[in-house]
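User: Here's a protein and a ligand (magnesium ion). What would the complex look like?
Assistant: Let me lay out the input and then the predicted complex.
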Amino acid sequence: MAEKYYAGIDVGSHSTEAVIIDDNKQQLSFSIIDTGLDGNAAAENALNLALAKIGINRENLNGIVATGYGRANVTNAGKQVTEITCHATGAHHIFPQAGTVIDMGGQDSKVIHIDENGQLVDFVMNDKCAAGTGRFLEVMAKRLGSDLDQFGNLALLSEQAVPISNTCTVFAESEVVSLLAKNHPRDQIIRGLHQAIVDRIWAQSQTVGIHGAVIMTGGVALNQGVIQLLEDKLKCELLVPPQPQIVGALGAALIAHRNFR
Ligand SMILES: Nc1ncnc2c1ncn2[C@@H]1O[C@H](COP(=O)(O)OP(=O)(O)OP(=O)(O)O)[C@@H](O)[C@H]1O
Ligand SMILES: [Mg+2]
């Protein structure tokens, strides 16, 4: 009998990921692409890319689960599941000891408390405001002439941070312009911006509490400045998977395995 495969697709505001697993829940392939303007097209492209990497046809998929803010428009999925459930499932699979999942994406940030079986206990989500999300860092990196993948490292160049008083992204951007005009060192401003985002996610985490080992997921987990300053603030080490952006899609694939086997 032919091998069975399962796919999870996470259509986020910034990027779309697909993960393929086999019947033994082994991750075989993944892809990460920009979401762009058409979430359904991004879902199709990400899935095809992940399938092509391992030479598997669509007909070999037993089930597809979609998640992410664009999940409702994914026409090829047999089921749609919330990001909270998918992140909890994916995080527990990678780090069974995790009790807290912090996901920072492009448009929202979430702190999720899970039990020893990876089941949801409680969560808090900020999807109202760009401050405290990856979008804030994107805007500031652009304003300060840094590539996104270097921005976090620049925050760690200086021990000193210039405090950023505005929490709103738009006002904080103006504040940065005025701090630059007053000749504040660029790396100290960058550290201040990272401290601001860390303070926000820390405040958010206090409403559900920090339980057990903490895993960080989402694209912002690629930012070393956020990781280090958040570790300092939480006074604990963060578990970061090798591909933090695909945790939601992995969770979706595992839920496809559970539902369509
Ligand atoms: N190479 C990188 N280095 C540092 N940060 C990065 C990198 N790539 C992406 N990011 C950060 O990750 C964010 C996007 O994260 P992610 O891909 O998890 O978002 P998303 O799932 O599409 O969004 P959401 O879950 O909010 O809908 C960007 O806004 C950026 O701040
Ligand atoms: Mg996401």
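Summary: The pocket of adenosine-5'-triphosphate (ligand 1) is lined by residues 12-15, 68-69, 105-108, 134-135, 137-138, 148-149, 152, 218-220, 222-223, 245 (CB under 6 Å).
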